[in-house]
RNA sequence: GGUUCCGUAGCUCAGUUGGAUAGAGCAACAGCCUUCUAAGCUGUGGGUCACGCGUUCGAAUCGCGUCGGAAUCACCA
């Protein structure tokens, strides 16, 4: 039983004994005592004034006295206005440390202990251009959320859905055929996804020229866009692809294989992984069967031009197209098919889509249509909607060349880490290989932490030049704190000190030390909250607090030089546990911690 | 225009069942390295929590309205 639940129960007992009143659980409000007051846990007294019919001070006094007698952990209390501040004795906190020392997975639930399985889809790139900053946020969120859900005891399946078909890919293919001169990643030395992306850009530039040409001849913008030979050729290519034309399919396979190789490299560099990759080219047809069945069952309806629709007006939405008049499928059709396939294959309890908030409408409709079609799991689809990443100059636009490329960004971060480390002379005496690994860990740590510390729901601003810092509330700051701890532990070991597995619970500890223990105590609750709210930001902000608190402790107390061996060992053990929690929390964010830096 | 989301310090962000004097970091300024890694620690300044009204013992948090921003409402994905 946690100390909070003991107190909560005690307060209810007090209300019954003192005022003969039953109070509901949610009437008992506990919170951390604010730092400016003495105490650890605070009971809010206001809700009890009606039943006590006394002043807040008097009521607090009575409940406080009751609790102190009932609960041995409570050492004393004080009342400020309507707040009863309880002080928990040091013995309790030290015993708690003793409990978590042997626990290798402190903060985590047992793997697969909930019996709940959840599939997380993230990344979902198009194969016509390389990954950019927007994908970076998506990848980091998806990977971190998956880890957090695992830490909560769920069985998690991480999947990627590659959008490998459609007109956008034909544009790249066409441009490559016209202007590529047979260029390949090998002949150009270019990463495959970047090479293909270049032809997508080339297409767009040439297409614009054609449009301008037609407008100059007197056509409207809209007419010009439709008349341009390039777009017609691209559409023709798509039709050939759907008809399985040999040359087209071969080219498509070749260029996609370049892109996948490039993506794999980027994923590997970022440290994200998938259990299963789906390709839209393989799933897009399944949706049609589902729609046709819905039509037969009169759940969907057909318009005179043969297009198929779902009527969602009763649910407060519009009608939604599910099949075009020519019988081809749209985005929604594919997603219906993919969802069905996944639930059939994996029988998951929950499906989480990590997709930007620009698609809020799409996922509401997706879930609704599936519910209408009678799938019992339809309500278990969850859209983890995250905000856009904006640049100081505004939105990123591929066509205007204002995108921040994922590979460039990672490289830049690692280079910055290197420049910083070299300037500080931190890694003198390391081999080039060791040093490079540390630059990588720090550079990526800075990037990942910077993005994940922001509430996923919110749009965020990213300034590639100025936003990334290595001091303050940053990944490297937390990593640095970890290396400080590891350094002490190494030194202790060199001195022949064995950190004990059990601490004397009678020792006198300082306020800062207690603060740190209390923070570590919160970790499992933070992991739970992060899981239920799908928010890595909670973990990020927590681990920052831990690092900050530890640095203050580190500054205030000597550890290895402490003469009292019992106290010294306590501080060593506290440091070690702090290090473990930092490592564990950072791991949930997908961030590595170095042993030195 | 309809719907949804957002607006907290110069900048980037915390603040989650409503709770005490709204917190960090960056930037600025002032201190701390013969002592466990100064990528650290300490201090100073900086706020009409967009605005108004309401609910409440109590509102950054809940409700209504106004202003400002974003997304979306495609036979695009």
Please tell me about this protein's structure.
This protein has 597 residues and is α/β, with parallel strands linked by helices. It has 3 domains: 3-88, Arginyl tRNA synthetase N-terminal domain (Gyrase A, domain 2, 2-Layer Sandwich); 122-400, Rossmann fold; 412-588, Isoleucyl-tRNA Synthetase, Domain 1 (Orthogonal Bundle). Helices cover 55% and strands 11% of the residues. The protein is built from 21 helices and 14 strands. The chain has helices spanning 3-19, 49-52, 56-70, 90-100, 133-151, 167-179, 185-188, 192-216, 221-227, 229-242, 246-270, 280-283, 286-296, 331-346, 360-372, 406-424, 432-452, 475-494, 511-533, 536-556, 565-588; strands spanning 30-32, 41-44, 74-80, 83-88, 117-121, 155-162, 276-279, 301-302, 308-311, 319-323, 350-356, 381-386, 389-390, 460-461. Strands 7-6-5-11-12 form a 5-stranded parallel β-sheet, sandwiched between helices. Helix 6 (167-179) crosses helix 10. The radius of gyration is 30 Å and the shape is globular. It starts with a helix and ends in a 9-residue tail after the last helix. The relative contact order is 0.10. The chain binds one RNA strand of 77 nucleotides through helix 15, helix 16, strand 14, helix 18 and helix 20.
């Amino acid at each position: 039983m946690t100390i909070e639940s003991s107190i909560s129960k005690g307060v209810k007992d007090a209300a019954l004994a003192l005022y003969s009143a039953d109070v509901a659980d949610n009437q008992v409000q506990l919170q951390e005592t604010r730092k400016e007051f003495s105490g650890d846990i605070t009971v809010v007294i206001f809700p009890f004034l009606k039943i006590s019919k006394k002043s807040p001070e008097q009521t607090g006094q009575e409940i406080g006295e009751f609790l102190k007698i009932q609960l041995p952990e409570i050492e004393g209390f004080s009342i400020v206005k309507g707040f009863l501040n309880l002080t928990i004795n040091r013995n309790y906190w030290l015993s708690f440390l003793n409990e978590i020392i042997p626990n290798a997975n402190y903060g985590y639930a047992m793997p697969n202990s909930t019996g709940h399985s959840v599939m997380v889809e993230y990344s979902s790139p198009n194969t016509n251009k390389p990954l950019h900053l927007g994908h970076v946020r998506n990848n980091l969120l998806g990977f971190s959320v998956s880890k957090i859900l695992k830490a909560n005891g769920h069985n998690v399946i991480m999947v990627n859905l590659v959008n490998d078909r459609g007109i956008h890919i034909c544009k790249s293919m066409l441009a490559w055929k016209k202007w590529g001169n047979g260029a390949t990643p090998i002949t150009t030395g270019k990463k495959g996804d970047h090479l293909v992306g270049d032809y997508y850009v080339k297409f767009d530039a040439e297409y614009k020229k054609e449009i301008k040409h037609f407008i100059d001849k007197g056509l409207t913008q809209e007419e010009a866009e439709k008349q341009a030979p390039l777009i017609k050729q691209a559409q023709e290519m798509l039709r050939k692809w759907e008809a399985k034309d040999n040359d087209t399919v071969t080219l498509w396979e070749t260029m996609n294989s370049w892109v996948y190789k490039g993506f794999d490299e980027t994923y590997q560099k970022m440290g994200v992984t998938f259990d299963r990759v789906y390709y839209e080219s393989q799933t897009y047809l399944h949706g049609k069967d589902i729609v046709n069945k819905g039509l037969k069952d009169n759940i969907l309806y057909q318009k005179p031009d043969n297009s198929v629709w779902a009527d969602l007006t009763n649910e407060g939405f519009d009608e939604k197209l599910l099949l075009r008049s020519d019988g081809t499928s749209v985005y929604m059709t594919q997603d219906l098919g993919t969802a069905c396939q996944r639930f059939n294959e994996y029988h998951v309890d929950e499906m989480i889509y990590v997709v930007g908030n620009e698609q809020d409408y799409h996922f509401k409709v997706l879930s609704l249509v599936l519910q209408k079609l009678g799938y019992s799991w339809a309500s278990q689809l969850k859209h983890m909607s995250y905000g856009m990443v904006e640049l100081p100059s505004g939105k990123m636009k591929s066509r205007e060349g204002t995108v921040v490329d994922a590979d460039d960004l990672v490289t830049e971060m690692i280079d910055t880490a290197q420049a910083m480390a070299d300037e500080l002379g931190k890694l003198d005496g390391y081999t080039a290989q060791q040093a490079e690994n540390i630059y990588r860990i720090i550079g990526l740590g800075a990037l990942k932490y910077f993005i994940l510390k922001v509430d996923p729901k919110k749009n965020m601003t990213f300034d590639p030049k100025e936003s990334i810092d290595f001091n303050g509330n940053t990944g490297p700051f937390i990593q640095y704190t970890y290396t400080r701890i590891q350094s002490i532990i190494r030194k202790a070991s060199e001195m022949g000190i064995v950190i004990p597995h059990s601490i004397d619970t009678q020792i006198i500890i300082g306020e800062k030390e207690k603060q740190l223990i209390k923070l570590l105590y919160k970790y499992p609750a933070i992991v739970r909250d992060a899981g239920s709210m799908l928010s890595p930001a909670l973990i990020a902000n927590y681990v920052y607090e831990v690092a900050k608190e530890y640095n203050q402790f580190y500054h205030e107390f000597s550890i290895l030089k402490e003469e009292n061996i019992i106290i010294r060992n306590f501080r060593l053990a506290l440091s070690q546990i702090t290090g473990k929690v930092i490592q564990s929390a950072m791991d949930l964010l997908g961030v590595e911690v170095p042993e030195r830096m």
